[in-house]
């Protein structure tokens, strides 16, 4: 991988981190309403996955989807305007945090239903195979969704029809406050792929290059007609399930995972390789924060939707 792509991936991670940190400030200050499921701590997964895709490849996301759509290429200003409920948002302010859809970038949608993106990604992969357009579909889902019926139905169908879909499990070890170990009889989500004769892999979700390298192989496998792949990324969210919820996770566990900050790990790697200096990395982070501040102002200053627009976008033309 060349230095240009590595620097882009570092910027992507910093942009997501800055976006989520700012959202936390805004909702704590009472400036933003609604539910927010922050992606802080998991940035390496979204960036590693999406940089292995083409612009028009499909992704389906989750309730914790801001990082996915930013990594796929959505302008943070448009994202912020959507969260403010403004007409300049990605969905004219009608989608909010959990229903962001940007078809021109292959983003079928973030999804408030646990496991809801699995059949959508499978359907998108079916369309790609039927149309022979060479696209692949990626489904982000959490460890909690792996216990939903939609998980097994989707994997079974994708394997039967050799659909070009990569199922990416962001295993952050908890469904709300329920540990995966208390909800599953298998240690790893990836082990479930064997039931469908599907290749799988487990990667360190704090290592963006490990995620990227595994995804490159998975995408090549799927795009070449060999069928689906399940990739499990072991990661950890820094904040509670949803801002304002109680967080019952052990503090020693939280501290150990936070010490494995994916951005710090990757920055130190690039410094060791001579690709960037600490001063340059600090400037990159400052620029990312400035970009997000500008996005906030864009969201604040954008117009509110007209009342009559409530009747628009309900039915297709």
Question: Could you characterize what this model shows?
Answer:
The protein is an alpha/beta fold and about 325 residues long. Helix content is about 45%, strand content about 10%. It has helices spanning about 5-30, 45-50, 65-70, 75-85, 115-130, 150-160, 210-225, 250-260, 260-270, 280-300; strands at about 60, 105-110, 135-140, 165-170, 175, 180, 200-205, 230-235. The strands form 2 sheets. It has a 6-stranded parallel sheet, sandwiched between helices. It has a two-stranded antiparallel sheet with strand order 5-6. Helix 1 (about 5-30) packs antiparallel against helix 3 (about 65-70). It starts with a helix and ends in a 16-residue tail after the last helix.
- Identify the quaternary structure here: single chain
Would you tell me the structural class of the helices and strands?
Answer: alpha/beta
* Major sheet: 6 strands, parallel
Radius of gyration over C-alpha positions, nearest whole angstrom: 19 Å
> Mean pLDDT across all residues, rounded?
96
Straight-line distance between termini? 45 Å
Give the overall shape. globular
- Strand tally, please? 8
The total of helices stands at 10
Strand content: 5-15%
Helix content: 40-55%
Model regions low in confidence, pLDDT < 50 over at least 5 residues: none
Keywords: Oxidoreductase, Thiamine pyrophosphate
Protein name: Thiamine pyrophosphate-dependent dehydrogenase E1 component subunit alpha
Cofactor: thiamine diphosphate
Organism: Candidatus Pullichristensenella excrementigallinarum
